[in-house]
Design goal:
The chain contains 13 helices and 14 strands. The protein is an alpha/beta fold. Helix 11 links the parallel strand 13 and strand 14.
């Protein structure tokens, strides 16, 4: 059942061992409804969070590459013009200038489309930000396939991989607008560089003001009765994972875990869930190589190998199209997640 307040760690593993699923639902569960939820883009949540930070901390600055409205930095720009810096279409400068500001005590947020930052300026992020371990907050908007008609040039499907491999870098991928707001606020207090991945399209809001958010801690959102498969999801596709769990409820019981922090990964939660269900599916709007699936596989290969299936983009570029059609074409939608669950469950029984 939908569970906005649960956290999964070594203590939760003990709960799994000592209680029945029905008991856990009583303390951790809340019914998930398939009724039409409210919709908002994760970039909108970022804009709200940044404005809140501006009111709270004068060290917070906003730097943009000529995309203030699209990245939702516009409200900050209008309220705090003296703390907004427009770099123009110069993403390399965006990273380098922010690095210098961070080195002198500021908390700069830099924003552009993910295809350009970290896509175009990856070397500057690596050398001036990650290597120096300065607290620049990199916001990659319009990530994934959901930019739709803009096509392959603007569909960042490798940004998590680019950022995850850099030492010192924290990687956040919020599931909805409310979680994006919280991720933005949390990033400001994180002592080091942070990458926040955002989407363009309005998507279902699954979390609430009361839902917890802590960097490095996964959240259990759905717990079926005696779950047989764990779905690890990140970003807005978490909603499709929840829908798959609900539709499979009478056939295969699953748990759904929201991995909003891809680095540092909540390895304890990953291992605990794998031990509990014995089979895993990962879901992401990103290349399978280098993304959430890779991170989960790396952790389980060392700690607790189990049968695993990956829902993600399979070594392809994107293309122009309606976002929903693209998710179906690349097999990232609810039916594809259900099929992955069935496949891994069958492998588990072999």
């Amino acid at each position: 059942m939908l569970n906005p307040s649960a956290k999964l760690d070594s203590e939760f593993e003990k709960e799994f061992a000592s209680k029945k699923s029905s008991d856990l639902l009583a303390t951790h569960g809340q019914t998930f409804s398939s009724q039409t939820p409210s919709l908002a883009a994760t970039r909108d949540g970022f804009g709200k969070g940044l404005l809140e930070l501006g009111e709270k901390d004068p060290r917070v600055l906003a730097l943009c590459a000529d995309l203030a409205e699209s990245t939702r930095m516009l409200a900050f720009k209008e309220k705090y013009p003296e703390r907004y810096i427009e770099l123009g279409v110069a993403e390399q400068n965006l990273a380098s200038v922010a690095s210098g500001l961070a080195n002198y005590g500021k908390i700069p947020f830099i924003a552009s489309y993910a295809a350009f930052s970290p896509g175009r300026n990856n070397e500057q992020i690596r050398t001036t930000i990650s290597l120096n371990n300065v607290p620049v907050k990199i916001v990659g908007s319009h990530a994934g396939l959901s930019v739709g008609p803009d096509g392959a040039t603007h569909q960042a499907l490798e940004d998590i991989a680019l950022m995850r491999v850099q030492p010192n870098m924290c990687v956040l991928s919020p599931c909805d607008a409310e979680e994006a707001r919280k991720a933005t606020r949390a990033a400001a207090t994180h002592n080091g560089p942070v990458y926040i991945r955002l989407a363009r399209e309005k998507t279902p809001v699954m979390t609430t003001l009361a839902s917890p958010f802590e960097i490095g801690r996964a959240n259990l959102l759905w717990l079926g009765e005696n779950p047989q498969v764990t779905i690890f999801a990140t970003g807005p596709l978490t909603y499709q994972a929840l829908m798959a769990a609900q539709e499979l409820e009478s056939e295969i019981s699953v748990s759904v875990i929201n991995v909003h922090t891809i680095k540092p990964l909540d390895t304890a939660a990953v291992v605990a869930a794998a031990k509990n269900t014995g089979a895993v599916v990962t879901v992401e709007e990103h290349q399978i190589a280098g993304g959430l699936g890779s991170a989960i596989a790396e952790a389980l290969a060392q700690e607790y190998p189990v049968p695993m299936e990956f829902v993600g983009v399979r070594d392809q570029f994107g293309q122009s199209g309606n976002p929903a059609e693209l998710l179906a074409h690349y097999k990232l939608d609810t039916p594809a997640i259900k099929e992955a669950v069935k496949t891994v469950f069958a492998r588990k029984l072999q």
